[in-house]
Amino acid sequence: MDVDKVAFTGSTVVGRQIMKAAAGSNLKKVTLELGGKSPNIVFDDANIDDAISWVNFGIFYNHGQCCCAGSRIYVQEGIYDKFLQRFRERTQANVVGKSSACSDCTRTRTRAEDPRHSL
Asked: What's the pLDDT tens digit per position in 2-32?
């Protein structure tokens, strides 16, 4: 099999196995993006609207397909219930679609901002 390079995004456990296999064959070129699970930490004194906006961006930007996606959220107990309810509402308002239809593709739009949906 003619393989010039292996690129992998995923866990460090599998990344190690790929490195061993590449080293054991003929030192294939390897690119690894490992780990992920970058946490968002939200404290009681946070601006909850800003926190929700950034947490939403952190996990849904690029459909979560980047090694730095904020796929864990730690919320201080004092605002946990409020945050959870508001974040649930925000995620339900996200619009999935072609990025070419988005005038501001640096963030996920809400349904209210998407001209394809009427409320």
From this structure: 788 888 877 889 999 999 998 888 888 898 8
* Residue-level length of the chain: 119
In the chain, where the domains are located: 1-35, 36-119
Mean of all residue pLDDT scores within the chain? 80
Query: Mind telling me the catalytic residues?
Result: 33, 66
Single out the residue of 102, 98, 99 nearest to residue 115, CA to CA. Answer: 102
- Spacing of C-alpha 79 from chain mean position: 23
CATH of domain 36-119: 3.40.309.10
Strands 39-42 and 29-34: unpaired
